[in-house]
Amino acid sequence: MPLFRIHALRDSLRQQFRAVPHVSGSAAVKPKDYELRGQIEALHEYDAWRLLRASEQPLVIGDLLETEDGQLRICKYVGFEPAQWVVPEPRPQPEPEAAPTT
Prior knowledge:
There is one protein chain. This protein is α+β, with helices and mostly antiparallel strands and 102 residues long. The protein has one domain. Helix content is 18%, strand content 32%. It contains two helices and six strands. The mean pLDDT is 86.
């Protein structure tokens, strides 16, 4: 049975996520906005949702499930849709200026 890692959207961002209009397609999500909340064995993401529904920490809108091979599925009002981590590129460091030689 597949194992899913559960990533919970930080509470401070839940209301903001709910206010955003639904867009079809892959969602871009930032790792800093999520907390790893554990794992669950389930047949698929809807089975995981069903198993967690009666627990103390059910999956809610905005939460992610990550498969063993790293694929992300985000819980939305319409069901689960693909998602992907967006990791910002590091800012280039300015090169130090050469000291004037005299």
